[in-house]
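Quick entry between incubations.
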Amino acid sequence: MGVGHSSLSSCSVDSLCIIAFTAQPKTSSFSNSNRQKPLFPTKKHSPFAVLKIGTLNCARVAGEMEIGKGIAAAGKPIVDLHGIDDGLIQKIVYDALVWSSLHGLLVGDRNDQRSGKLPGVGMVHAPIALLPTSFPESHWKQACELAPIFNELIDRVSLDGKFLQDSLARTKKVDAFTSRLLDIHSKILEMNKKEEIRLGLHRSDYMLDEKTKLLLQIEFNTISSSFAGLGCLVTDLHRTLLDDYGEDLGLDSKRIPGNTATGQFAEALAKAWTEYNNPRAVAMIVVQTEERNMYDQHWLCTVLKERYNVRTIRKTLAEIDSEGQLLPDGTFLVGGQAVAVVYFRAGYAPTDYPSESEWRARLLMEQSSAIKCPSISYHLAGTKKIQQELAKPNVLEKFLESKEDIAKLRKCFAGLWSLVDSDITKKAIEKPELFVMKPQREGGGSIS
Amino acid sequence: MGVGHSSLSSCSVDSLCIIAFTAQPKTSSFSNSNRQKPLFPTKKHSPFAVLKIGTLNCARVAGEMEIGKGIAAAGKPIVDLHGIDDGLIQKIVYDALVWSSLHGLLVGDRNDQRSGKLPGVGMVHAPIALLPTSFPESHWKQACELAPIFNELIDRVSLDGKFLQDSLARTKKVDAFTSRLLDIHSKILEMNKKEEIRLGLHRSDYMLDEKTKLLLQIEFNTISSSFAGLGCLVTDLHRTLLDDYGEDLGLDSKRIPGNTATGQFAEALAKAWTEYNNPRAVAMIVVQTEERNMYDQHWLCTVLKERYNVRTIRKTLAEIDSEGQLLPDGTFLVGGQAVAVVYFRAGYAPTDYPSESEWRARLLMEQSSAIKCPSISYHLAGTKKIQQELAKPNVLEKFLESKEDIAKLRKCFAGLWSLVDSDITKKAIEKPELFVMKPQREGGGSIS
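Done. Structure below.
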């Protein structure tokens, strides 16, 4: 467990206010091993996806989304809804619901048992913020600048097997899940297997600190970073609503920044697929047995097919165990089909591994030549414990050369402590409003 | 009641196989009274919307759609699904469901009580044919040619108040609903009120007769002709599926004809709105209290807003009764807002008028200067009884001059008999497989 320090008086832990930036995949996150062939520009400003758990009739779904790696956007709303005519708000809400329905801004409704297994049934509009939230342009640019540096850092950390094993040695003893991940990591190290092509689709979550006005990082997601698909649609929805009601609200749709996260994620997956260089191979999405955020994933697959003609298949870890086959040359077949890219939208939580079958599947994929997004190393590099290690003095310097980059990263580090630190634990018990307790693993949510 | 003769051995009454053509609005259906200013080209080939109640997991919904003025497409499928690998069919079905979800090809799920009242909740994919159905090009062109002639005919018939009253005099005695419509019609005749701008959004339903290879008309819908919105999407879906699987199926997506029904309906509504010439007025959709086919309507309103900046409001007949106000100059206000165009997606069935309130609303709108789509005259002109009258010798000649046009219409007339004809009733009892029994009113479905 890690305890994240929080002094955001405007955001309670319950409302889980986090700005979600879709990090831009870049050289370090998707590169060949000798780093001679950058596939993405470095340090380019990246667009971002903002999704807020709003006040629409979706409180229940919002809770569900958090479990499913949900995102919530921070800050004060641009408009104080209490000051607006109720009839106008109802009109905007109605239009937002219609727009979401017609444009695929959907999730499965957990009231419908089939909705997590089949597309096209039991659908409900995604939980959304009715209107965009203000965010300082300077901090937005800062977050965009940070994205490629974090990607570079994660890539370098992922290549240092000893650092990962050592840093997580203590966690290994108390956390059976991380322990199993580390076992796979050890086996890969023993094989002396190098991931020559590496792909990361990351999302860095920030809070704006009210007191210091600093952009503080909450966590960096290296596995199953969701909402690239739906987040873009939220941007489109907000633009449409402001085109229609902006005058009444005193808001200008042109001030909403662009959001091309879906396209960028698809582009990155397509580049990885191209690098793998087997035109008959597919991209495989590793999915949970029930997935109510499936339309976010389907958008990505749709763009991947339409723009790059890359076909995807969807398999659970159990299906991969039963249908998967590793050929001597490293080719990974599922149901007889070669897999170029494995994109994890499952496998980040202990519940994704109910039996040995799922662990076998994870190991098999890791041993193959398929490009894993993420590899076991990227997955481990994204744990809170590693985030905590990287925040210690002189650790960043081991992985990055540029002092400027290091300074930029440090500036966004919020305090991060382990529960074994008795002083800080005592302080947290005394003043719980200053802290956020986060689980070690992925999957969203906080511990209250 | 009318009995429609049917000799289609390939289509049983139960499966209700009807090809639905979206008739093109044209001069006669949308014209000023002196007919000097045609707003739509005459006799231009019109695209059509085909929607088939398919074999997807939607048998229940299909039933619902029939009640809600559903459409089903006829003919043999291009591909014999029994000959195709089951795995391939499952893939196509999955893709079709994903596509429908992401692109708004939706209806409300009647298992969800809220789904008929609120958008964005309890949604399910629309019932669709998985693949397009073959249809002879010559018959398609014939149907396109017929559309403007039928529009012209309906317009002329609508202007002959005496013909409508006389033809429906017998129906009036036995059908309370038609009787109420005729009462409104009489009041309007007494007022000597002329509809100077008339708008019709029609759909003509045909069957292909297997024995004679003739295109036979089943009915002509002048009120609440649905599926312009979803029908276009089905065309897009089929094109996408054939782009992906056409090679496996031996089908070419380029052979699917274009479908611009949504755009044409929106264009017609926008032209009517422009003719009304009050930039602050809205278009009003008259809706049922529960409407699970709402997304079909929302697509139309979305295009109307995006392309023509015409705002729409949605009101039930009861709401119109309580919020409506007729000004001395004929202006119709609802909730204080001037209404330029009234577009009926309700009001065609007796159940739409549970009390006197709804009838008051209908009369009030009819008395106003708002452009009704349809007017009471257009509504009555679309009844089966009028269709039957028009099929009698020398009746078409009263309304149309062109012998060529008259011949074209006659060619597509299927036999149509009233139940008062004892000979035909006897024949129908002896050979029920040769007949379809249709209700006098709108609302779809057959009587078995």
